[in-house]
Amino acid sequence: MNEEFNESVETEAQGTATEAAETEVTDTTEPALNGAPLEAEAPVTHKKGLIIAIAVASVALIAGLICVVIFLLKKPATDDRNTVSTTNETSVSEEVASTGESVSDNESVSGSEPSVPDFDFSAQLTEEGFIKGADLSSVKDLNLMGMEIPYGSVTYIDDKVNADLLEAASNYAFYDDNPELTVQNGNTINLNYSGSIDGVKFDGGTAEYQTLTIGSGQFIDNFEEQLIGAHPGDDVTVTVTFPEDYHSADLAGKEAVFECKVNSIYKTPEVNDEFVQKYLNDFGSNLEEVKAYIKEQGVKSNIQSYIANYISSNAEAYDIPADYLDNMKNLVKYTINQQFEEYKTYMVYYGYYDAANMTLADYTGLSDEDYETYVADTALEQVTLDLTYESIFKSADLTISDDDYNQIVNYYGGEDAVNTYGKPYILQTAIKYSVISFLEENAHVIDEPQE
Question: Hey, what domains does the chain have and what are their CATH numbers?
């Protein structure tokens, strides 16, 4: 699955078939039976320049983003299941807006609404979204009209189509309390448990509506294995022995008995005609039609990716508006600082408290001189791309449709985004969107196999 599409459909869908499971415990405090605190995996250590590169990515990140297969973004509608589903959605406009300076639309660690920027994103842009003082005659003509693209560079193979369908099905996964289901290794289940030693309950040994993936090793040895073969609604007695080196001296080396109840099993719907007709009927009446739709959109997305990457690799401009470049440098620094603060918050949230004392140099891995050089180079690259897109837009006499504009506005948070980012900034993003769409429509895929 291509990276952009994977991002667009990646889901943390969680649900339950019972009202009680809807109040599932999500606290990360440690139940006594766990071998280690229930904390997320430690974030990958940042590497020199890596996180900074995210701050102001090139417009090549438009790659494959404009024609994301929309149906996989569709949230499950209300149906006859008691399902709680949360999907990390990425729309067409969201992906385009993830290019360039727009990366500074940040989200908090907890996944709350993006923080409100305090930077003038529309500075040095005209009301139409064009760069003030731009001399487009200095922009290299990339001759992209009627661009020929090798078929092998944009094909969308059947394995990707099938992977996309499975990912789509995961958006509709739910906790099923059907007693005919059986717990198997690898299943994620919802359960209650109450532990005791010599008939006496101990602190931290009791919990309700906990999620557990069988085989994950989340709980102490031999706990999860004893749940295999159970069914939703079953009561299961699990007997385990805490390790001799267990962190709680009161429990170390002791045998404990847990009375467990399996509430439900996390189930992903089978991808078939029935699934399509229930959830994906806007894109086909049966599975084969939806597969054809995915392949078509996948190829289209790959063509746009190819074009965007080509522009990013070949853009050149020799007359750079000084004021716009200075503003871009400030924007690069602003986004880096925003991400730096969020990174520290993220690390502290997961228990890495020393991160609170981290400096910007620690975060970037760059000296002051190298940092300034990086900022200057990144800003120049972005300005060159912005000039190139504007040049193509004007040369092709393109316009921004209301639909295009509204998609960008919706990504940035609706009408409030106009006050936050300014209409010129939103229009500039829409210009890039329009250019890629136009070039894709006029491109020619060559060496395509004949059926």
Answer: 40-171+273-446 (no CATH), 175-267 (3.10.50.40)
